[in-house]
């Protein structure tokens, strides 16, 4: 398998695999196309030798990816709700009662979107800290 496949299998960044190869923690050879080739047996042997710190880095990386995906889904959903509510508000312009309800719904949708966007800074901080810890 190549280095990207090994990284995916171990749940680490591709550069982590390259670092492991370069410092001798993982055996690999170069193919004719100059890609790193790692045997499954070498990868399995390395997997058994991984220390607690590396396990923590692997799980931290996986957790950060899950947080980013969930955050991106939340932002997308909040934005879609905001757009849908804004359209409904425009359609209700001739009905005062419905317009008032839509304006309240629009405010809630805007608050939800702002909250999702505000969490962006936290996600970036988590990601940055995880990169430092690796």
UniProtKB/TrEMBL annotation:
Coiled-coil ranges (or none): 89-116
Single GO MF descriptor: DNA binding
Helix-turn-helix domain ranges (all copies): 2-45
Superkingdom of origin: Bacteria
This protein's record includes keyword Kinase: no
Stored InterPro entries: HTH_17, SinI_DNA-bd
Keyword terms of this UniProt record: Coiled coil
KW Membrane (keyword) present: no
NCBIfam families in the cross-refs: excise
Protein's UniProt name: Helix-turn-helix domain-containing protein
């Amino acid at each position: 398998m190549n280095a990207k496949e090994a990284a995916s299998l171990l749940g680490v960044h591709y550069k982590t695999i390259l670092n492991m190869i370069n410092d001798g923690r993982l055996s690999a050879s170069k193919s004719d196309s100059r890609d790193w080739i790692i045997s499954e047996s070498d990868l399995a042997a390395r997997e058994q030798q991984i220390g607690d710190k590396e396990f923590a880095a692997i799980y931290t990386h996986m957790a950060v990816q899950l947080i980013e995906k969930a955050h991106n889904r939340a932002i997308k959903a909040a934005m879609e709700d905001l757009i849908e509510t804004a359209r409904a508000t425009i359609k209700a312009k001739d009905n005062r009662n419905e317009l008032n309800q839509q304006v309240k719904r629009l405010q809630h949708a805007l608050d939800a979107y702002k909250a999702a966007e505000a969490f962006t800074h936290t996600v970036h901080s988590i990601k940055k800290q995880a990169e430092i810890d690796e």
